[in-house]
Each structure stands twice: as structure tokens, then as C-alpha cells.
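Lecture 7 notes: from sequence to structure.

We start with a single chain of 499 residues. Read the sequence below before looking at the structure.
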Amino acid sequence: MLFNSVEFLFFFLPITLFFYFWLSKKRLTQASKAWLVFASLFFYSWWNIIYLPLILGSILFNFAVGSTISKRDDTASSLKKRLSRKSLLVFGVVSNILLLGYFKYMDFFIANTNTVLGTDMGLLHIILPLGISFFTFTQIAYLVDAYRNEVKEMDYLNYTLFVTFFPHLLAGPILHHKEMMPQFDSLKSKVVNYKNILMGLFLFSVGLFKKVIIADTFAQWATTGFDKASALNFFEAWATSLSYTFQLYFDFSGYTDMAIGLALLFNIKLPINFNSPYKATDIQDFWRRWHMTLSRFLRDYIYIPLGGNRKGEFRTYNNLMVTFLLGGIWHGAGWTFVFWGFLHGAALVIHRMWHSMGFRLWKWVAWFVTFNFVNVTWVFFRAEEWKDAIDILSSMFSLNNIVLPEVLASDLHFLSQYGVEFGGFTKHIHAGGEIVVWLFIGFVLTLFFKNSMQQIKYPHLLELKNIGILKLTVYSLIFLGSLVAMTLQTYTEFIYFNF
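Now the structure, written as C-alpha cells:
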């Protein structure tokens, strides 16, 4: 079920909210949690009920292992020593990785084995269960936190709610057990809070607007350029890459806003996951702003355990590369994702070396370099095949295929002697002059406006009385406009559903 669907907005969400607070009002606390778990599992099963046993089995397994780790005393009997807390942790983490590996990477492994060894093993054509990367990482973090004695309570219903809570289930944020459990148990979360509802609706409506109005508009040009056009000229290639750059930004930030907004309706505050990453002036700053909970996970559970920056420069660079190679393959089973991760790891290594030598760039130059690096690397992230990425990048950096609008022919005809042509300069991606306007809007919104979290000073929310009539009207119009646009088009999945 999609956040931007009629079924979700007009049936699932109001029914879930009503019964959750109705049960809470009757002081049926456990029943209200159980209802939210049931609703979340129904939400997950809407896509494909065949994978419901998968997530339930994963939850039961990880809860059992995590509970055992928390209760285990390594100073006890020889049997317990053979089943030490560390052994249980390794067993739990490896089991999760194997589960994720089977569904997400088995066909990738078979295809590459066939290529290297010349074998002819058939692909399994496994359909990737929605959200498996996110609920697997969430539970790996839980096991590690249990090993570190950071898990303070063990209740199966609470744990199931922690994993399945529908606002974050399919595409994050990636959560820590300790930051969510106190909220689910708080009495304040059981009472209707109109301030949270107002802020939640604001965030949800802004996120919906980002998705159905902005991201889906850029998607049509990005999809045509990457998947359908046989050849692109210089401007078409740049328009294609920038369209995907902005599609991904508004798609993912839209989802994040909607997820945080939905959680606020239930008085639950999810961690910020997106903080204007295209304003970043270096690659490290970018990763502090983009998919912040994934960056936190990679830092806390891969980079730091590998040694972080504590064992010399060479080990630091090695740890960065390993972390981002794993981050790349986490996003998808393909060499383009691995190479994307490699490029970002290499950029972070170069950034550290640059700073260690005391070099600095002017701020606007630093932003220009960072943005264009991110834009170019998104080409590998989006391309279906290696060749597709190379073709687009070749067109982006070639001056032999420049086509200008026909209206400029009379004034700039002298450029023809240099190979410049005049005509439909974006015809292969089925765009006209409107794409220039939309790209300008994309730059303005991402660079010069406060993001939605800053607008409401999340998580320190504004008081209800400080929300003026004008703002309420604007928010309502955004929401209504998004709903109207949504009903006029086919629903599209969020990009991160594929990861």
C-alpha cells in the first residue's frame, strides 16, 4: 500500500487512527499496541501477503536471539560459554545477512558466477520483498545494541511494533530500539495531541506534494532519458541526469516527510533522515545530510567497528572504502551500485587528504564541485546497465553533440561552423522549454528554501497557537492540490521501495 494512494489516505489511515486512540481512551493499552501491529502487518501484506510469514519469522528469530544475548552471562557454565553472547551476536547477524543475501543478491551471484565460470545456471527470478533491507538493518542494530547492553526492555509485542510500525517499515528511517520503546510506552502517546496532528498533517501534505507534483514530474524525463531514448545530445544528457537528481531528492525527502508526519499523528517522533543535502559544500557534509539514519548505521555498525579513524590514515581510508562499498551494494544488486559506492568512498578519502593538507575551496566552488560530483554519480545509481551510464556520461561531457533551440538559429548561426546544430534540443526526452523552468524550480527549492523540518523546528515543534491562519490555509491548499494531482495520475512507487 502506497502513502500516495486513495486506499491509504481515505480508508487505512483514518480507520487505524480512530481505533488506536479509541482503544487507548478505554485504557486498553496492550490492545491499542496490538491493533497498531495488526494494522502495520495489514499495510505490509497489501503488496504481497506471501511475504507476511517472512517478516513475522524474522521478528520472532531476532527477538529470541536478542533476548538471549541480553540475558546471557558469559561467566556461567561451560555450555553457556560455548554459546557466548558474542557467538550469539555473530549467529544472529550472519543469519540476517544470509536472509537478505538470498532475496536480494542470489540472482546477482548466479549471473556473475555464470559469467566468470562459463556455467549456465538458471536465475531464480526472486521478487524482492518490500522493506527487507530496512527491517533487516533495523534488527541487526537491535542485536548489536542488545550485545552492548543498550536494550533495557524485552517485550515481544513492543518489539514487533518497533519493527513493523508502518510509517517507517518500507523505506526507513532505520531506527534504534532505545529511541523508540520509551515513546511507545509513554502515556502521552495514547492521548490525541492536536498539535502533533497539525504538524503531522503539514509534513505529510508537504511530502505528498513533493512526491506527486515535483518528483513525478521530473520522473517522466528521467525515465525517458535513461530507459527509452536511443541517443541523447549534450543538453538532453544533462537534463536527464539533473531530472533524476531532483526526482530522487523530492521522492526520498517526500517519503521522509510523510513517514515522520504519519508517526506524529500517533505522537511518535521518528529521527530526522533528510536535511537539505544539496546544500552540502563537501562530500562528508552531504552524507551528514542524506539518508542520515543509514549514514548513522554505516558509521556505528561498520566504520567504527572496523577501527574508524583510530588506527592511522591508511586504515582510515581503507575503512571508508569498505564502508561505502557495502553501502553501495546495500542499495542494489548490481555493479553500478558497487561503483557508485566506490566513487563516494574515494571522494571521502580525497576529502580527508585534502583537508589534512590544509587546503580549502571558496564556498561556492566547494558547493559546485560537490553538487556536480553527486549529480554525475547518480547516473551510475540510476542506470540499468553499465553501458547506459557510460552513454549518458559520454553525452554529458562531449562538445560534439550540442543542439540549441531553433529560435536561436538566426542570432547564433555562426556556431554552425563549430558543429552546433539547431532544432529540438530536448526532443529525445519528450520535453520542451518547460524542463528549463522545472530545473530552475528544483535548484531554487533545494538551495534557497528551508526544508520542512526547519519550517516546524522539528523535533521541537511550534506551539499550536503560533500557527497562523495564513499558514493553515497554505498547508491545506498544498494538501488538497496534491490530492487532486494524485487522482489524475497513476500512483508511482517511491524510489527507495526498490532497495
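The longest helix spans residues 194-228. Keep this in mind for problem set 3.
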